[in-house]
Amino acid sequence: MKKTIWLLMLPWILWAAELTPKEAALAFWKAMAAGKTDAAKALTVWGEVKSALPLKLRIAAVEAKEGNVTAGRASVPTELTLALPAGVENNMTCRARFDTALLNVAGRWVVDGRKTMGRYDKAATAAFARCGARLFDSLLEEGMHYFERFNKMIEEENGSLQKAMREWQKELEEMMRTLPESPREKPGQLPPPEKGETI
To answer: Please, are residues 130 and 94 in contact by the beta-carbon 8 Å criterion?
Structure first.
């Protein structure tokens, strides 16, 4: 089984022999973005591409710059555009910046999976925190918008209620003016009770 996998990866390995550190980093991250973990593993020295993140961030875009090469090691500045999981928030992306670590093994550049994935996890966590803050701000802003609309409706209803109360008061005053005068007069005094009567 392992021989079959290695035979399938042989074109990747041969192709990777001619890559610069930047090209190897881009090929690795593009394979990860496409979900081709076997192809990404073929471009690593340790064969590790697992992320410790519990998040299902999707790699939407990959950018890399020319890196620094020193004594068989390379560090390529990498920027990944990460998208939040589907259904959370449409079009919300975050940028994770870190260095992809590469080693020159037998004349070809391969990604140091352990170092790179550790750096990726830290950068992706920070990017997700920024996205989370933006998402929270967005939800808070939306909530404030609905609160203001609700408050405006209450004010409008309150104004209508006050207007109705004033009209009702005017109607009562009008009714009081049109009542005959006799009911508004003070009732007469009752005669005092006679001795021995109880009230």
So the answer is: yes
Residue-wise pLDDT tens digits, 6-34: 444 545 444 445 789 999 999 999 998 88
**Phi, psi (deg, nearest 5) at residue 111:** -80, 135
CA angle, 116 as apex, 24 and 136 as ends, to 5°?
115
The SS3 call for residue 91 is: coil
Taking only the tens place, the pLDDT of each residue in 28-47 is: 999 988 888 888 888 888 77
**C-beta of residue 40 within 8 angstroms of C-beta of residue 49:** yes
> Which residue in the block uniquely carries the two structure tokens 């989370």?
132
Helix spans in 179-194 (H): 181-184
Q: Where are the domains of the chain?
A: 2-133
Pull the structure tokens for residue 191: 């005669």
Q: Specify the pairing of strand 68-70 against strand 58-64.
A: unpaired
Q: What are the tens digits of pLDDT across the range 85-111?
A: 655 556 678 888 999 999 999 889 999
Residue 188: CB atoms within 10 Å:
6
Tell me which DSSP letter residue 112 carries: -
Nearest-angstrom CA–CA distance, 48 and 197: 110
Kindly tell me the number of DSSP H helices and DSSP E strands found in the chain. 5, 5
Domain 2-133 CATH (choose: 2.60.120, 3.40.190, 3.10.450, 3.40.50): 3.10.450
Q: Look at the block and give the residue holding tokens 């998208």.
A: 83
